[in-house]
Amino acid sequence: MISIIVCSRNSTIPISLKKNIEETIGANYELIVVDNSQKKYSIFSAYNEGVKHAKGDLLCFMHEDIIYRNNNWGKSLESYFMQYNKVGMVGVAGTHYLPAMPAAWWDTEIRSGQLLQGSVINGEYKVIGKDEWLEYKHIPTLVVSVDGLWMCFRRRLFDLIRWDDISFNGFHGYDTDISLQVWNSGYEVHIFWDVLIEHMSAGNAQLDFYKSLDVLYNKWCNLLPMIKGTEISEGEQTARLRIAELRHELFYSEYKLRNLCASRQYRWGGYLLKPSTIYYRLIKHLKRLLGLT
After folding, report:
1. Model pTM?
2. Euclidean distance between CA atoms 268 and 17, whole angstroms
3. What is the per-residue pLDDT across 6-37, written as a single tens digit (0 to 9) for each?
């Protein structure tokens, strides 16, 4: 049996998602919804709670903003784990290279996987397109880490690993951390190609996300860099490392600029450098006092 575990912002997941799972999985399953409507759990503690109640041989952790777009994926999943004895975990998108720095799985752009990406544009939800990374596709496709929107494991692996709610809190870093735990336990992480998932939100990395990457790096720096499923020359590793560094530098530059523009000092500086603005507002205020507006 497959145990599907969802951490929900509500007391339960939508009926439409329950129906989607039922109609597409093609295998025996149970659904475990961890109610996080009161914000009691981090993603780590919520998933640990789900593991406690799971009875299946395979544990599948998924976001509640996805839709399955092909049938019998559960049956194919069971067959995959039977075929590859060394695989401990699978996902739908992941990286072959994690550098020796705080980095997300997509930062180095050495990826494999597929998914349909959707987003709300002008108030209307649309599928933007299919993200498909095939440059490094082999069967089986080994990767260092996968994206957390959908991940499946052998149940017995949780005798060796756990969602680390001691080192982490919040909702970031869990996917790469658990992927590295799998590798460190002697099992493999693969891309599973026989499920097509539509992700209904693109996500938005903020400061708490980047802070979680720092925690992740400090925990696993002795194992990094890590390469799986392909060969990468030292020169390309250096180039990809620089890509990741530039991504992070750009984020922190934009973050500092936003904070600066929102600061009181910046606003006062704007007034001092633009005396016409002060004059205009003063005239407007006097007119209002005199009843002229």
Report:
1. 0.87
2. 51
3. 999 999 999 999 999 999 999 999 999 999 99
